[in-house]
Amino acid sequence: MATAAWTNRGRRAVTLAGTVTGSRSSHTALKSNYDALVIGGGHNGLVAAAYLQKGGLQTAVLERRHVLGGAAAYLQKGGLQTAVLERRHVLGGAAVSEEIFPGFRFSRCSYLLSLLRPHIYRDLELKKHGLKVYMRDPHAFTPMLEEGVRGAPPRSLTLGADLATNQMEIGKFSQKDAKAYPKFVAHLERLADAIHPLLDAPPVDIPGIISGSPRRRVAAAKTLMPIFRCGLKLGKNLPDFYEIITAPIMKILTQWFDSEPLRATLATDGVIGAMTSPSNPGSGYVLLHHVMGEVEKEKGAWGYVEGGMGGVSQAIASAARSYGVDIFTEKDVSQILVGSDGDAKGVVLKDGTEIHSKVVLSNATPYITFKNLTPQSALSSEFIKAVDQIDYTSPVTKINVAIDKLPNFLASPTPGDKPGPHHQCSIHLNCESVDVLETAYKEAKNDRPSARPMVEMTIPSVLDPTLAPPGCHVVSLFTQFTPYYIEGREWTDQDREAFADTVFDWVEQYAPGFKKSVVGRDILAPPDLERIFGLTGGNIFHGSMSLDQLYLTRPLPSLSDYRSPIKGLYLCGSGCHPGGGVMGSPGWNAALTVIADLKRR
């Protein structure tokens, strides 16, 4: 199980602040019948629930934990009665805030916001419902492990919104790269902008186009429009788009740049959350996926949500409730009800309670949905075999750290424990060269945690004072690469502590004194991410974002339209198109699909 250590110094530190309590679900009584039930209170489920309820469906969300944040807020916008069922006492799936140590509030799993679709943000009026985002500028800081020259500190690379400043920073390593960087950013923005039509619509309905009735063929033909719009936006850049989604990210970066710190820093976005290396095909798309978002109309920006990422889930939940969605936590669904006619009829909770509905949407991973929740007798052996083949490999171990002193980096010293601009960044450690990333990846592929892991450190409390007691901070260490099994065996608490010690030793080299500042740490290896958050394999995207699991084949060709083999059962989580990240599009697309299907009944 996950390891959480809390020191006596930590207990003293929190006497400065009051306790922050987690949010609870409303006191609405659970009904026996709804139009729509959503399993899992993650952000996609909440988005789905909101839109179904808005569309006229009485909807309920059921979350197994005590916090919200999974995939249920767009269903309540379509006129059906919808419920979201979450088995914890928190809503949010991976987008949750939890007070692991008294006074310290963490974004325990996901930790930054960018990919949330702007139309969802506006349509659900999330700002009115309490969503506040702290913008980061600069946004990336890569310190070097090297000796300073003539008493100067080691070099570092800092990137932000101002291109001229970025060029000055890059110029410390290569003037040629500094000149090329603005063109590279503009190039990526053009490609990312062209993808947007594909995000907000289901994939092309190929079966409907080639073999449907005349009426269905006309409807299916409309699903081609997002591809046409994407193609028109790309224009002459279509070959570049094809290259970046299929090529290793290092092929792309080597075409543009020479300096290792810049290439390694950019390459991290090509492997973040993915068990792949910068030299593997498909890593280019992972980078594109991570630069196609925006925050407060700033393209490609990433921000900190006030109160942690649970603030996103709570804002979506608040919007959903305002439309009439019933949201329940600590409601653990044990099985999806399938009638004698083969249609979904509702769900059964672990306590035996049956809740009936016209449709069921699952924000769980495809594996959990079809292997754990759906009666196996209702599915064909061929389909079950296909579900077994979905790749959920994860390289991530997330470490949440409570500290009583701000890290002081050798590459950018800050006297008096005062935050510098770099403290608000994604701080890239062990990213001096791509070779370091490659070595870390190869170790994990050989079933060993990386001896020199890639580390993305964030300190959101630098901008958000609600997260920690005065003078203290919360730190997120998103680390790669770690395997699900260590040389064929399960992780032990000793393994977790040993890996965390390795990570802390590396942080210490960049920021001496870091280890002494630690008052508590929460270590989540891939099996912990699976067990706590329902992320099969520990994969933060609900399934690898590899080329064989995108668009028409996400998560399987037979499931790419959100419909399952069981009539009335749909997927609405990140395992569906367009994939992972706190985006909301899977929930939005699934809700529209449900509403359209019910209109045809």
UniProtKB/TrEMBL annotation:
<keyword id="KW-0285">Flavoprotein</keyword>
<dbReference type="GO" id="GO:0016491">
    <property type="term" value="F:oxidoreductase activity"/>
</dbReference>
<dbReference type="Pfam" id="PF13450">
    <property type="entry name" value="NAD_binding_8"/>
</dbReference>
<dbReference type="GO" id="GO:0005759">
    <property type="term" value="C:mitochondrial matrix"/>
</dbReference>
<dbReference type="InterPro" id="IPR036188">
    <property type="entry name" value="FAD/NAD-bd_sf"/>
</dbReference>
<comment type="similarity">
    <text>Belongs to the carotenoid/retinoid oxidoreductase family.</text>
</comment>
<comment type="subunit">
    <text>Interacts with COX5B; this interaction may contribute to localize PYROXD2 to the inner face of the inner mitochondrial membrane.</text>
</comment>
<dbReference type="Pfam" id="PF01593">
    <property type="entry name" value="Amino_oxidase"/>
</dbReference>
<keyword id="KW-0274">FAD</keyword>
<comment type="function">
    <text>Probable oxidoreductase that may play a role as regulator of mitochondrial function.</text>
</comment>
<protein>
    <recommendedName>
        <fullName>Pyridine nucleotide-disulfide oxidoreductase domain-containing protein 2</fullName>
    </recommendedName>
</protein>
<dbReference type="InterPro" id="IPR002937">
    <property type="entry name" value="Amino_oxidase"/>
</dbReference>
<feature type="domain" description="Amine oxidase">
    <location>
        <begin position="286"/>
        <end position="580"/>
    </location>
</feature>
